[in-house]
Amino acid sequence: MTAPTSAPTNVGGKAGDSEPLLSLRGLRTHFVRGRETLPAVEGVSFDLAPGRALAIVGESGSGKTVTVRSLLRLLPRSARIVGGEAYFRGRDLLALSEREMRRVRGREIAMVFQNAMEAMNPTLTLERQLTEHLVWHGVCGRAEARERAIRALADVGIPEPERRIRTYPFQLSGGMRQRAMIAMAMLTEPALLIADEPTTAVDVTVQRQILDLLVKVKERGTGIILITHDLGVARYFCDDIVVMYAGRVVERAPTQDLLDDPRHPYSVGLLDSSVELGDRNRPLTPIPGSPPDLARLPEGCPFHPRCSMAERPACLSPQELLPIGEGRQVACWKVRER
Ligand SMILES: Nc1ncnc2c1ncn2[C@@H]1O[C@H](COP(=O)(O)OP(=O)(O)OP(=O)(O)O)[C@@H](O)[C@H]1O
């Protein structure tokens, strides 16, 4: 997001000491490619409380999408969840049967994507899709579903919802389609909303509208996980940030702490190369090198070959994510030693 640098941080945030809505512990998801195993997600843990928003940031290929798709168990055939637990309202999502999971997906946990066409059926009107979603999840009967669907479209700011509900997704503008997808996701009042780059494909004005909509969702008490490559978006309304690199969490911190004072050398690099947060008087500094091939990860800390602080042999040992202060954790021995 290029615009709202002056936007308030953590819009709609609440005191964050309530019981976690989601508690992810040691998630490991691997892909099998021929004879190779790709550890796309390797030991990811975080908690999310109701009414809070958590951003997952990191370069392309760092494992953000695979992490959230593992929670929903919506993975390609070649992927395997090989470890971890994901407690959501007292149940481990990773241990539910597929039948139980179908009830959770879309009803208690909803997902919005970068492109609404991925979530919506292009051959059905909004009315069919929204009402069937409600009826299928047993929220209400068909007669009430239409009323609810119209209300949901109005809630996300779609003008003339009675008329628009009769249209097909492709007849809407990109921004309207994103809103309709959010309306559909929120129909069942899910406790958790997962948003994967929801503003990447729309222009700046629409971005702001979609984010304001997500703020309202958060204020209703819904927990949000937002995947974004845009630290401006994370700053706008996320309470906490998880930084991922090569399938691992390298730092976790309250948003403002991380943006004011990133600790892990990779987080420092991400901020220094961020176009959205960039100080116009300072040149952007790209992180040297490129993300590693997951099939040939370096020994120890996967970031050490690109890290200006790296020291051998200490960085050749695996780095655990350990606390370094109130609500902060970092996976770097050197940062902790300072
Ligand atoms: N279907 C697949 N088969 C094999 N490897 C995959 C597959 N999908 C993802 N991966 C690998 O898993 C890793 C993590 O991918 P993921 O999509 O989670 O990254 P990401 O951080 O969300 O990136 P982006 O910002 O580009 O979406 C990548 O290295 C990717 O190559």
UniProtKB/TrEMBL annotation:
InterPro entries: AAA+_ATPase, ABC_Ni/Peptide_Import, ABC_transporter-like_ATP-bd, ABC_transporter-like_CS, Oligopep_ABC_C, P-loop_NTPase. It comes from the Bacteria. It holds the Pfam family oligo_HPY. It is found in: Cell membrane. SUPFAM superfamilies: P-loop containing nucleoside triphosphate hydrolases. GO terms for cellular component: plasma membrane. One of its GO terms (molecular function) is ATP hydrolysis activity. CDD domains: ABC_NikE_OppD_transporters. It is a peripheral membrane protein. Keywords: ATP-binding, Cell membrane, Membrane, Nucleotide-binding, Transport. Residues 24-271 form the ABC transporter domain. The keyword Nucleotide-binding applies. One of its GO terms (biological process) is peptide transport. Belongs to the ABC transporter superfamily. This is Peptide/nickel transport system ATP-binding protein.
